[in-house]
Amino acid sequence: MAAPMHRRVWRLCRSCDNVAFYGSVRVFSNTFSQGVPEVAVNFSNDRPMQLTTGKYARFADGCAVAQLGDTAVMVTAVSKQKPSAVPFLPLVVDYRQKAAAAGRIPTNFLRRELGVSEKEILTSRLIDRSLRPLFPENFNYETQIMCNLLSVDSVNDPDVISINAASAALSLSDIPWNGPVGAVRVGLLDNEVVINPTRLELTNSSLNLVVTAMRHSLVVMLEAAAENVLLPDFQKAIKAGVKECQQVVQAILQLQKYYGKVKREIEVPEPPNADVVDSVRSFSEMRLREIFRDHNHDKLSRDVAVSNLRTDVIEKLKHNLGDAVDGSVVNEIFNKICKEIFRSMIFEDNVRCDGRTMDDLRNISCQVDLYKPLHGSALFQRGQTQVFCTVALDSPDSAMKLDTISMLTSGFKEKNFFLHYEFPPYATKEIGRIGPAGRRELGHGALAEKGLRAVVPKDYPFTIRLTSEVLESNGSSSMASVCGGSLALMDAGVPISSPAAGVAIGLVSRYENEDTKHMEDYRILTDILGIEDYMGDMDFKMAGTKKGITALQADIKIPGLPLKVVMESLLKATEAKSRIIDIMSQTLSKHRSIKKENWPVTEKLEIPPHKRAKFLGLGGGNLKKLMFETGVHINQEDDHSYLIFAPNQGAMDEAKEKIKEFLSSEREPELEFGAIYTAKIVELRDIGVMVTLYSSMAPALLHNTQLDVRNVNHPSALGLEVGQEIKVKYFGRDPVSGLMRLSRKVLQSPASSVVRNLDPKD
Questions:
Q1: Is 75 helix (H, G, I), strand (E, B) or coil?
Q2: Class of domain 676-748 as given by CATH
């Protein structure tokens, strides 16, 4: 029954030219005959991506498999049939890395995937931000997107592939969604744009940019880490990425046209009573305008004034209209009117609620070197956003180790610089849990880390842990972490290439019928407040130095943003971060050159090969003793040198004294090359005998090949016993291993040297 149906579909495709071939989108005829619909996206780099459906997980509302190279991801979309009680979209995106997809076994005790890793959380957020803006406004059905890694080739990162597969799964499902979207990764190699670079290309790229866009070149999401990329190159990369995304969109549209399900009807809530709406507006509009025009308000007083007004309006309506008034409905109406008035006043007055114009920054103040025990510290205050940053320098052993799949996809085994972001509930005058970092904290910390990673030297001898604790929050705390983190790094003496700063750009726009391509009007807001983020259409965060850009994250809340607005936002952010760096430079413009007493130090120590045993001690006991007594870590760099890490100069001096004792605890007699010595056997081994020339020297091996002119398989064949004394000839030390080279065999031929039986007292 299935074969004739697929033949009919293929005949239908052949009868329509724009289905079989559409630009660079190609539909494979052989896959239709096998019952697996497939389309290929031919990017400009000649690395096609395949999208298939209909083979796996057919109980799901939608399922698609995307494959690039040998990396394949299956994504399913499932949504409940009845709406939930919450007044927002309950969307959950679960991306899980699986060792089996790479042919590996997890290394934990249970040998299975356990808790969610940071990489999985960040990728889930990346996918969520690419999909969420395109759901209908009244869609409050519980929806889950699950990304299942089928295979990972360690060449292509699955994150961008997952976005495309999720877009296809939602488009093919009956879930209402205004997609599709396409996503590509953009690299920059020798100032040339590379689409979907491989892992090796990405390690040499100065840019790692993920672009998600929909039809008509509307941008939905941006995420980037860069090595101080210039603004024109960054703009070029975004334009190239948006152009390539259109190929993915067209491919998904082709698949959806013939294999997509009819979108389900959703329950649209009845509009509130017009009289109630008019009453709420009449009671609140003028007073809301007064609140938003009172520039003396801060975050707390403004929130209290709006909350008191909301309570007053609900009480008046209940008094006038009786108990028939539903408080939750009135609350929702009030919130919509509040948002409408807040946005309209920006267009009317060209002044924001705190009195600033569109391009003004909030007041900024900075402090460094706050507490002496800290290696580096800074307090950055921007308006009512306050961030306390600290830097801790430690040994290379403290570097962050990555899990197996993250190593395969990123190419890094460990990180010697990482930023931890903390957002306690008291920062917004709330009560909440204290525990492991949540998804929001991990996402903000990763963004701030990207903003600073480019300026931190890659060959720095210490592991750097930068912590950013938000003490007050009124918008843009992640970008404040970049500013405070830059100051803390300089205070800790880290030779960063240049100071870095971050700023958040907002947007308020007017458009009709979800047509964001033809905006009637818009205002771009520099350095947004928390309320402007909540009421606005965009949270566009950018970090960088005066020269270029180091990180970007654009969270767009409307269904797509024109490229014109994106480019204008980049210009506004570039100007703002330069002004912020000028203010920061008044406090500290470069890293400290005069060392603090508590700064850690490192030294390189050369140890001759023949002294390694004394230096290390039995089983490395000397190194363990140094670590416990002085806190000093010693790591071997090569065959002859070791790197000593000490928490301070005093510990280094103490450790060097102990090392001197290890190496000179006993006087080792000097041996003469070619001389003959009387050696005492202390141990018989299968490969030879262990002998000592002097009681103060460590035992040395006399190999079977040097015991006798005849072939010897075991020393017992010659009648040798422990405690027996034999004559051996000394031929110096091996230049690589440092072991003594001894021979008894050469003494069985005519003597060529004077026999020496020296006493160490001589």
A1: strand
A2: mainly beta
